[in-house]
Amino acid sequence: MNKHQTDNANAAAFPVDTIRTMFPALQRAGDFIFMDNAAGAQIPQSVLDAVTNHLVSHNVQRGGRYGRSVTVDQSVADARTSVALLINAYSPAEICFGMNATSFIRLVSLGIGQMLSERDEIVITDMDHDANIATWLALETAGAKFKWWRMREDGNLHVDDLRPLVSDRTRLVACTVTAHSIGSIVDVASVAEIAHAAGAEVFLDCVHYGPHGLIDVQAWDCDYLVCSGYKNFSPHMGFLWGRFDTLKRLPTFREDFIPDEPPYKVEAGTFIYENVSGMDAAVQYLELIGRNLAPSNNRSRRENIVAGMGAIRDYELLLAREMLAVLKGCGATIYGVADEARLNERVPTFCFNIGRLSPQRIVEEMADMQIGIRDGHMYAPRLMKRLNLSMDSGAIRASLVHYNTVEEVHKFGEALRAIIARLS
Questions:
Q1: The pTM is what?
Q2: What is the DSSP-derived secondary structure letter of residue 226?
Q3: What is the CATH number of domain 16-44+302-423?
Q4: How far apart are CA 263 and CA 245, in angstroms?
Q5: I need a surface site. Which of 2, 25, 287, 350 has the fewest CB within 10 A?
Q6: Using N-to-C axis directions, what is the helix angle for 67-87 and 273-293, rounded to 10°?
Q7: pLDDT given for residue 297 in this prediction
Q8: Predicted local distance difference test score (pLDDT) of residue 4
Q9: Residue 3 CA to chain centroid, in angstroms?
Q10: Is the sign of the CA dihedral 186, 158, 154, 180 positive or negative?
Q11: 49-283: CATH number
């Protein structure tokens, strides 16, 4: 059996029907198909239960001496431990909770802006979400200079193009792990190798990769990383990871009574405790997938996460292969990796257009047929320009996660073919 056949066999064994029963939104949706998951995923019942339990049992401020308040302190500590395991952090103290990834990118950029000296160059890309571009460009008034790492025509960033951009003037390389718009996966371990060889740091936007593959900050050797919990099957929240010593050096705003060390110096004000409890439960949900696929009493929590995310990755490659075939069969222009032989370079997030047909009209027609997808500029104006697309119309994006099914992909294809026939 070749690798392609093995991957298909592994994906076919993925218990998607059982997994779907864990998501109340999917059970209540009727015929509706969720294919806008890049904008936010649904949450399992266990996550909903964790949020409800917080609000009912200990919806109080942490830091008090009474039982309910002590429980909040413990739940936040438990969530730090879980998220640290999810991303393979060196310590739970490196996990900082807050409102969203964008606010954390801005927080780090403001700190780095105060530390610019002879290292005043920042490398940014034209494939990223604007949150990981505009936040750095705002440092121009602080003296920052910028180098652009450009996406190639094949729909991905290549590290060979990064090498000549990095020098002893480079302060930071900021890039995505996976493009939220076109689904391309970046070789971030090589990015870190190149940056660190020049004495620079690496900031990774991991928001879109989080639901699709195994995060490993140690293997990637990055310096900062942000995620959005609501893309990772939790409620709306975000978290920042940074090496402990790196976060300790980073200038941040803090009130005088806040300890000047991570994670406290990074977490200005009160964050949403119930959603942090939900993120804790979301990590445990991913562990459960790994544990159920290959039951073992000897595996650690991290090993179960590794097993679960590996199974998710294999299954999503099958979804990506099916979606790629459907879009090609409909004559779509696919932005990003469109070669089936390079599927390992992408996640099942597809950005496309159908000839001269209006993306907005197609998405509206899809909505009438109970399929949720998205159109527009995808918060990536520089990428739209790179693809010769207007900000007004942009493109169409269909984004899948592991609770989607091959049957849903085929229904999507049937609906798209019918719309094309009707509008052409």
A1: 0.95
A2: E
A3: 3.90.1150.10
A4: 11
A5: 2
A6: 50
A7: 78
A8: 55
A9: 27
A10: positive
A11: 3.40.640.10
